[in-house]
Amino acid sequence: MSDLRTMLHEAAGPLVTTDALAVADADLARGHRALRRRRAARLGAGSGLLAVAALGAFVLVSPTPGSTPVPAPAQAAPKVATSGIALVSYTGKQPVGYTLDKIPAGWEVKHSDASLLTLAPEDAKDTASAPGEPFSLIGTIAVMSEKDTGVPSGIPLDKIRVGDRPGVIAHMKGSGDTRTLFLKQPSGAYLVIQVWSGLGWDNDQIVEFASSVHITKDAELTAG
Amino acid sequence: MRAARDEEFRRYVLARRPELLRTATLLTAGDRHLAEDVVQATLTRLYLAWPAFQKAKNPNGYARRALVNAMVDERRRPWRREHSLAELPDRPVVDRSSGTARGDRLTDALGRLPPRMRAAVVFRYFHDLSVTDTADALGCSEGTVKSQTARALDRLRDVMGTPIDPPAVPVPGVRTTSFRPATAPATNFRRSY
Known about the structure:
The structure holds two protein chains of two kinds. By secondary structure, chain A is an alpha+beta fold. In chain A, 26% of the residues lie in helices and 27% in strands. By secondary structure, chain B is mainly alpha-helical. Chain B has nine helices and one strand. The radius of gyration of chain B is 18 Å and the shape is globular. Chains A and B meet through strand 1, helix 1, helix 2 and strand 7 of A and helix 1, helix 2, helix 5, helix 6 and helix 8 of B. Strand 1 of chain A pairs parallel with strand 1 of chain B, so a sheet runs across the interface.
């Protein structure tokens, strides 16, 4: 007997996106073009209205003789980068082993035990599995505490600081732009945060999230 | 205003696109190029209808309907229609490889189902949708969903030559599956370097 669901998941292929940010930008650009086409079509449909609209627009945007262009109002730099999913204050139930100040907008705590915390989109399927078996971390943020086994080597590492603590962000192999932050704790253990590539975060956003994660006494160390 | 819409849209794409693409891959019986086109068309429609999509009571259902409609429209395009060739191509025109032998066999079997029958199977057993939600996604009656899925399972069994278990009906609060993709970086926390 074969389980149809498992076979369908195999046939659907892996849940991996390469260069998710560029793909999202391309989707957005297509949306912009479609919106322009639709607006142009609507304008073209009413040629009489078009003339009036064009005249009105001309009057509205024409500068007064002798006037100087008005500079666009200065905008404060957004706290989070313009790419990726923004962080928002976390108001839900705090997970086991960690407290969270912020999480990605539209996300929630998917799994929480003393050795693993995962976050995923609210409408994502639960990735929990049978006890003792691994979890699927595709498309998630995973948080854990590891014994002092050191940071990985042989892959690109970016030095970062979370508050006054130095750490590194490792660019993991074989999973798009998945990055993992390693932040040494006073105890010698590491706070480890793996951010799946689809989230589209840069290092600054990962650091911002890491600064909002606090380890509690209930967190269990894993071997890594 | 538009900046907020753009940011929300990007967020949605980053979070949901991979799953949409997997669904489209099944709906197109493994035609990944067509699946990509269908997803692009779906996302463009969602962007155009973003205010309505945001207000929808069931955004996932809205997206599923958009996906099905986009697939139907893509298949109607003249260059998508099947046409006769004087000589058979010496290699497959479309790469339908899923990466596993069993997945490839199912992909081949799905390709022998009519599109809407295939969609009923995908929504019922890949997405674990209820008969009601599947009917909503396909714009048909619940009775049609039941008959289509029953016939589809019979055909899949015949084509694959092996018994196929329809997954147990999900019961709220009871986990009926623990499927985990075998991709190493997905299941191993930090052993992907």
